[in-house]
Design brief:
Layout lengths: L29 H4 L15 H21 L9 E5 L6 E4 L15 E4 L4 E4 L7 H13 L5 E5 L2 H6 L20 E4 L9 H11 L4 E4 L3 E6 L2 H27 L9 H11 L2 H19 L6
Parallel strand pairs: 6-7
Antiparallel strand pairs: 1-2, 1-5, 2-3, 3-4, 5-8, 7-8
Helix pairs in contact: 2-8, 3-5, 6-8
Length: about 300
Amino acid sequence: MAPPSAVPPNSVNSSDKPSAAVPHEPGISESKAKVQMPKFPGPPAFADKHAERDYLKGRLAAAFRIFGKYGFDEGVAGHITMRDPVQPDTFWVNPFGVAFSLIKKSDLIQVDHGGNIIDGGPVRLLNAAAFMIHGAVHRARPDVLCAAHSHSIYGRSFCSLGRKLDMITQDSCSFYNDHVLYESFNGIVLAEKEGNDIAACLGDRKAALLQNHGLLTVGDTIEAAVFWFLSLEKCCQAQLAADAAAGGRGHETVKIHDEDAAFTYKTIGTPRAGWFSAKPLFDVIEKECGPDYLQ
């Protein structure tokens, strides 16, 4: 159906008449403009939890390659975690100090909620901040399979403003009423309390803007968490540019109406939409990297 604000009040019994509001294409009647979005496919299902673990570790390694490709690594900062399907009270994470662009499935380390490394590759170093933030999120959110955090340039720039996203683009509607602002910065997250505070602030949302720090996204799939991070980064970039351009002319950006943002969210902001939107990213990284990341 058309977005709420595109449907005039008197259109209930006159759907064949061109709307006075802007339809999907100028001059097209609403009835002709009704094209249903196809149903998104979903991630594979596994009967064997060990087979699922092996598959997910490969996807997590691919996620790091994607982050490396997009420049989301800076020194040793940044981490992506995946809840282990065999031992759900543990998670897999990148070893501290290994470049995102070089990470293989065999490099990943498994960590319990006591901060102990119980399995993994040859470099068994754990980023304490990764444990404090992601451990708290995984404990608080059993629905979350994956959490992603990095110090991306536009994300951390936007996070210095102490505000949430404005709904100024279709893409930003993915985060309509589904992101939070964590209004605190106490240095590198090395204390359990701050990790818990971040998790509490995140609540049941899929993204957090960590003030003076960077972006945090979560998902019920690795793909969704990765796509939300890339999309949120680009939304931050778009708003920084749009605010600067509008401010330079003494204007403000045009905001999307709440009802239209909510309508758009239902198509592009769902967990399944996040998984499907990431598919091209993972397909390309597989083609570019070959089987190396799966070793």
